[in-house]
Amino acid sequence: MSGRTEPLLNELVRDLKPVHRIPTLRTIGVGVVAAWLVSIAIEWAVRGHAPEFGPVALWGDPGFLVVLAGLGVAAVGASLGALAGAVPGREDEARLALGSGLVGLALACAGGVGTLLAGGSANASLAFGDSVSCLVRASLLGLAPAIIAWAFLSHTCTRRPYTGAGASALGAVALGAILVHATCRAENPIHMLLGHSLAPVWVALAVTLPLGFAIGRLGRLAPRRQSPHLPS
Amino acid sequence: MHEGRTRNEARELRWRAWMIAAQSGDAAAYEKLLHELLPYLRRFVQRRLGDSSVWEDVVQNVFVSAHRARHTYRPERPFGPWLHAVARNAVIDQVRVRSRQSRRETPLEAEGVPEPVAAPVRDTHERLSKEMVRALDALPASQREAVELIHVEGLSVAEAAAWVGITRSALKVRAHRGYRALRLLLGGEPT
Predict the structure, then answer these.
(1) Contact list, B67 vs chain A (CB under 8 Å)
(2) Across the interface, do A88 and B57 touch by the CB < 8 Å criterion?
(3) The pTM is what?
(4) CA separation for the pair A166, A147 (Å, rounded)
């Protein structure tokens, strides 16, 4: 198409239609947190009682608190990284946020491993069964925030959809895991590691490929539906 | 120098205003924006791809990408970094497509056809250009932007600082870190 840039510009002008701007990252961030709070409220309503926090002894355990802090950092960092990475010109912020999220995840795992090494009672066979229920609960609590993030990504993201899908899943499930960790009564350190600290990782590993593919397709198709006659 | 800074600030404000109007469907503003961006983006792409034969195609891809991504521009953000990100991504995509194509193509010498004398020189230019694009892509966006504005766009430090919206010293620091990282990425000795 060399030498035809001026006619292309005229074509683009003819194709111009008003567009809805993407919301600000702050708005989407608030949406993600609101969706998380709504999920907690729904769980509260379904169970018929407020979430009960874990045994007092756990709250004095540094390993428990490190996991909690790590999950918090992972949730904020990975979610912000996924959202910022979808907006052109915000790559630096995305990289910084994603880096923080991964540090948070490492911190959460270090907290679990630290508790295990400190000699917490560990029964592996019990831990695996309990971990699945905590993993499912964290995923359910993270589902609504993840849907908000995926809707934004599929509208915006035309590059690196797999990174966006993985990071948003990681962030959303880390959000869910915060409440799971704070309210879980199990004191088994293997359970804490597998069902709480690593819950975002299992889910991210499971959904990144299919979701990344879907986000990539939607991200590429949305503008083409608006301007079907423009060259690819 | 002050004049250059004022000119760039005025340009940024003008482009931003036209882009905001274009998002609302103002075709006249959009036409002005696209025609004013044309020489700017031609320079941007040509300097990144060297004397490649496809740079005009890449310019067109940049325009189509920017057109399709126009909903992702937020008025409270500067226009320059948004445009640069879209343009840079289009250039990278083009380089990747060409790399894939060149891997699939059979060299002429394998077919028994003598290569033109100028080909090795052109190949060297293209390889260097690809390596440079990859190295630039590996830099943090702030450093990449500083290096590009000064060495690809040919802006002065003051103009580049005004474009990014930071002080001259901050821009110099970013550019210096960018050069150092580029030197390492391209296999040079650290200073």
Answers:
(1) 12, 15, 227, 230
(2) no
(3) 0.72
(4) 13
